[in-house]
Amino acid sequence: MANLDRYLYPQMSAQRIIPMILWPISLLMVVHRSVFLGVNGDRTDDFKPVYAAAYNFLNNLPVYGENYATVDPHYLYPPSGTLLMAPVAVIDYERARWAFIAVSVVALLICAYLLTRMFGHALDSWVMPTVLFVFFFTETVSHTLIFTNFNSFVLLGMIAFLMLMRSRHDWWAGIPMGLTLAVKPVLAPLLLLPLLNRQWRVFAFAIAVPLVLTVIALPLSVDADAFISRTVPYLGEARDYYNSSIAGNGAYFGVAPWLVMLLRVAFVLMAAFSLWFLYRYYRKTNELLWLATSSGVLLGTTFLVGSLGQGYYSMLLFPLLMTVLLPGSAMRNWPAWLGVYGCMTFDSFYSQRWTAFGWMVEYNKVTWGWSLLMIAVFCSLLFRYLDMRSDGVAGEDAVMRSESDTPPVPATKSDDELSLSKSV
Question: Where are the bilayer-spanning segments (predicted)?
Fold first, then answer.
């Protein structure tokens, strides 16, 4: 009698099962988040003030005349950003917003692909649909599309910057960074990385691009001076609404100023140690791990200790999350992923039965998510350092170790798929 097992129980490896599950789900999530939630919009519309500013710029009208006392979204881009965003006002508002959402989705798809490639995996691997699923499952991507914000392009510029910097295309690496800084300087802390890595041309070009755009934009704007006199002081304030930074959260809940300052100093010190440890022990032995983890530490700490940290900034932590695939990652612990849930979840905690408690959890989830993530990374690296000190090897230079002492390189595609197959 013929063996029927091969007919009744056909074998399928994990690298085929995972894409088979996640590709259709991920693609439908892309459609849902963009075509339905994105086009529907919500109470917050970040695109409206951008469109108004672009329209005014093209028609020689004042751009920076908003009333910052209201809680409506405000236009906060510098003149260089206004110059780059001006083309959105060439068509009517509704079609411009739809087009902006569409281009944002394309940018996110490119980000998912580049992030997959940056960590050594192919388009047809299980990693690509997993990354895409995680992207569109999160609050940060969903609200970027729903509120129609610029963050998708910031993420694209960040990933391009890291990849080009790592491949030593120094002049090219400065271009995407410079373009994002010209519109939204949220990535400015990452300029520390080329300085630490002695890639001076990256730093120089990243600064030169927004300066050149500013020089071009200034004579074309009728109230560029108002950005300095009105907008810049507002950017330095820690507003008490739509602000998940420690200062913003403290202002909303009435936390004592001394405690707010103490927390901000504590996170700066934790970040300083983390960056030192990563620089000393990983920069020359695993540059990808150093770049991705250091970028996450710099940005996560900035979100917490700066004057403004909004939940959808969390998408800029995606490279940090991807390091979980690498040996030595500080993301290989459950507290870190509990923090990721807090700052990226699309879940709402409003409660009809426990109104006050649900409200507090909802308004604190991003802050405690960032905080727990930064603490988890810090503790992971600190415990490694303490173990090294106890064994008397903390003073050794990692690059001087023998070949046999070098940490294992990241698994190849075949090794990774083999391990997945065995686990299923």
Answer: 21-39, 98-115, 121-138, 145-165, 171-195, 202-222, 258-279, 288-306, 367-386
One-letter identity of residue 338: L
Q: Strand, coil or helix: what is 285? A: coil
Ordered by start, the domain boundaries in the chain are 14-235, 239-398+408-416
Cα 400 to Cα 202, 395, 410, 423: the distances in Å are 28, 11, 20, 36
| DSSP H stretches of helix in 9-150 | 14-31, 39-40, 47-58, 79-85, 93-118, 127-137, 139-146
pLDDT for the residue 400 = 54
**Which pTM value belongs to this model?**
0.92
Residue at token pair 């690059």 = 399
Residue 141: CB atoms within 10 A of its CB come to 30
272-292: pLDDT as tens digits:
999 999 999 999 999 999 999
Q: Which of 92, 49, 94 is nearest to 70 (CA)?
A: 49
pLDDT tens-digit map of 199-250: 999 999 999 999 999 999 999 999 999 999 999 999 998 988 889 999 999 9
Residue 150 contacts residue 183 (beta carbons within 8 Å): yes
Identify the pLDDT of residue 399. Answer: 62
144 pLDDT above the threshold of 70 = yes
Supply φ then ψ for residue 59, to 5 degrees: -110, 20
Cβ-proximal residues to 129 (8 Å cutoff; 6+ apart), any chain: 18, 19, 22, 23, 26
Q: pLDDT tens across 112-131, in order?
A: 999 999 999 999 999 999 99
CB 195 within 8 A of CB 202: no
SS3 220: helix
User: How far apart are the C-alpha atoms of 79 and 224, rounded to whole Å?
Assistant: 6
Q: Which of 413, 24, 88, 4 is nearest to 32 (CA)?
A: 24
Radius of gyration of the chain (CA): 23
Structure tokens at 95: 């079609």
Backbone angles phi, psi at 221, to 5 degrees: -105, 135
Q: From CA 140, how far away is CA 152, in angstroms rounded?
A: 10
